[in-house]
């Protein structure tokens, strides 16, 4: 049990489906649900799932998936945020009734408490509706409601006064606590966690396969949306600066469909870098390796869905993973890279686990020259790189979900005493 709670309902738009996993939130919710199940908390994850998959699925021990708003998603095939407004309304109108009737009601009969955690602005209307529903039935004392902020998207759409009356606000880093403070919203910090299985690392043969095709020249990889906040231009400029220093780095860039990608590759051409678009079936490791190995371009624009195993193997096989966002609420990717055995390059906002030149490279600016200088140091000192990877692995061990749940339990205990006292 988690602070006396035998049941948990996680409310999130993102989840484990490819349709629903756009960024770090999908990864967080999937691992969080598993961790709660492992802690013997009966957990239901409500998310906007793939319309072609079962509405209800037993996912892991103690964890049930409930794919919501599938009837809307069927008309919006381009992912969880396609048709977002309709989904927000449907989620708010229907999820609270199910939580109250199917989770809270039987738990209350048995004298058991329920923990409800909403993620991001899209779930706020659902939490407000749930609170009103529970109060109307006289059941509010059986439920603890938290709302968690993973980033600042949609803050302008939230009725903060109403939210704080129904839920305790949590967030994932001190940086995000500061951002919430701009809205006069106090928050409790509970960091993200990682799944313990990440510490096993990807298969060695897969790492060797990718290393064989990448290590002919210093290899960098960057995966993320094409968005200015991700500091793509710094990555491009760093490659150009390293070439000017006499190195011949190669950047594997895996972005999305966002139009900002044109700006990124335009910058590459402007800096005199060659760019090649490479398409491959990401779930076929041999095809992916062959495609990467066939390109001699300075920047490889990789267009492939990368399953976790291949993605982690690429992280480890590369000289560095550029998770160098200018504005990062937590930086889950950097922590995953550490767990797998890779070397991350982080920004200097929410990545509080990153220690410069100890377990990661950390950029304080958006200047490509800064990034290039730090990469140059690693290229010239394999022993330093190995020490940083080892330190990163030790850091990742401190952020396992089972450790994070200990922090969460203490924070929930405080919330419960505050409400009752």
Layout of SSEs?
Elements: E1 5-11, H1 24-38, E2 42-47, E3 56-60, E4 63-67, H2 70-73, H3 84-109, E5 113-119, H4 124-137, E6 143-149, H5 160-166, E7 168-171, H6 174-181, E8 188-189, H7 204-214, E9 219-223, H8 232-244, E10 250-254, H9 260-270, E11 275-279, H10 285-293, E12 299-303, H11 308-317, E13 320-323, H12 332-340, E14 344-346, E15 361-362, H13 368-379, H14 382-397, H15 401-420
Parallel strand pairs: 1-2, 1-5, 2-4, 5-6, 6-7, 7-8, 9-10, 9-13, 10-12, 11-12, 13-14, 14-15
Antiparallel strand pairs: 3-4
Radius of gyration: 22 Å
Shape: elongated
CATH structural architecture of the largest domain: 3-Layer(aba) Sandwich
Instruction: Look up the CATH topology of the largest domain.
Output: Rossmann fold
Strand content: 15-25%
Topology as a string of helices (H) and strands (E): EHEEEHHEHEHEHEHEHEHEHEHEHEEHHH
Number of domains: 2
Number of H- or I-type helical stretches: 15
What is the averaged pLDDT score?
Answer: 95
Helix content: 40-55%
**Could you name the CATH homologous superfamily of the largest domain?**
Glycogen Phosphorylase B
Counted beta strands: 15
Largest sheet: 8 strands, mixed
What strand line-up does the widest sheet have? 3-4-2-1-5-6-7-8
What report would you give on this structure?
- This protein is α/β, with parallel strands linked by helices.
- The chain folds into two domains: 5-193 and 400-420, 3-Layer(aba) Sandwich (Rossmann fold), CATH 3.40.50; 197-397, Rossmann fold, CATH 3.40.50.2000.
- Helices cover 44% and strands 17% of the residues.
- The protein contains 15 helices and 15 strands.
- It has helices spanning 24-38, 70-73, 84-109, 124-137, 160-166, 174-181, 204-214, 232-244, 260-270, 285-293, 308-317, 332-340, 368-379, 382-397, 401-420, and strands at 5-11, 42-47, 56-60, 63-67, 113-119, 143-149, 168-171, 188-189, 219-223, 250-254, 275-279, 299-303, 320-323, 344-346, 361-362.
- It has an eight-stranded mixed sheet, sandwiched between helices. Strands 11-12-10-9-13-14-15 form a seven-stranded parallel sheet, sandwiched between helices.
- α3 (84-109) runs parallel beside α4, α7 runs parallel beside α10 and α8 (232-244) packs parallel to α9.
- It starts with a strand and ends with a helix.
- The mean pLDDT is 95.
């Amino acid at each position: 049990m988690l602070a006396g709670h035998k049941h948990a309902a996680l409310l999130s738009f993102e989840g484990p489906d490819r349709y629903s996993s756009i960024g770090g939130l999908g990864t967080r919710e999937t691992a969080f649900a598993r961790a709660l199940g492992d802690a013997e908390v009966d957990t239901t994850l409500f998310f906007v799932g793939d319309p072609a998959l079962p509405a209800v699925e037993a996912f892991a021990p103690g964890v049930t998936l409930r794919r919501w708003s599938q009837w809307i998603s069927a008309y919006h095939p381009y992912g969880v945020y396609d048709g977002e407004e309709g989904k927000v309304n449907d989620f708010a109108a229907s999820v609270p009734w199910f939580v109250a009737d199917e989770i809270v009601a039987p738990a209350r009969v048995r004298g058991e408490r329920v923990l409800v955690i909403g993620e991001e602005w899209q779930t706020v209307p659902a939490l407000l509706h749930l609170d009103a529903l529970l109060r109307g039935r006289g059941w509010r004392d059986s439920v603890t409601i938290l709302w968690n902020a993973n980033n600042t998207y949609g803050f302008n759409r939230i009725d903060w006064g109403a939210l704080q009356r129904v839920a305790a606000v949590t967030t994932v880093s001190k940086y995000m606590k500061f951002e919430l403070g701009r809205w006069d919203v106090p928050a409790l910090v509970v960091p993200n966690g990682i799944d313990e299985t990440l510490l096993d690392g990807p298969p060695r043969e897969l790492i060797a396969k990718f290393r064989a095709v990448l290590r002919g020249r210093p290899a960098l990889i960057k995966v993320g949306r094409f968005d200015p906040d991700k500091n793509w231009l710094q990555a491009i400029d760093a490659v150009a600066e390293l070439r000017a220093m006499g190195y011949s780095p190669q950047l594997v860039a895996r972005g999305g469909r966002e139009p900002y990608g044109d700006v990124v590759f335009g910058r590459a051409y402007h800096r005199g870098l060659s760019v090649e678009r490479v398409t491959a079936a990401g779930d076929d490791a041999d095809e992916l390796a062959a495609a990467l190995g066939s390109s001699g371009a300075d920047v490889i624009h990789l267009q492939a869905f990368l399953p976790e195993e291949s993605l982690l193997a690429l992280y480890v096989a590369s000289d560095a993973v550029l998770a160098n966002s200018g504005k990062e609420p937590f930086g889950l990717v950097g922590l995953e890279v550490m767990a797998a055995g890779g070397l991350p390059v982080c920004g200097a906002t929410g990545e509080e686990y990153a220690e410069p030149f100890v377990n990661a490279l950390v950029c304080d600016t958006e200047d490509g020259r800064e990034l290039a200088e730090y990469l140059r140091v690693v290229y010239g000192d394999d022993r330093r790189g190995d020490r940083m990877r080892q330190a990163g692995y030790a850091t990742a061990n401190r952020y396992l979900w089972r450790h994070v749940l200990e922090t969460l339990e203490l924070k929930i205990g405080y919330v419960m005493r505050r409400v009752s006292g």
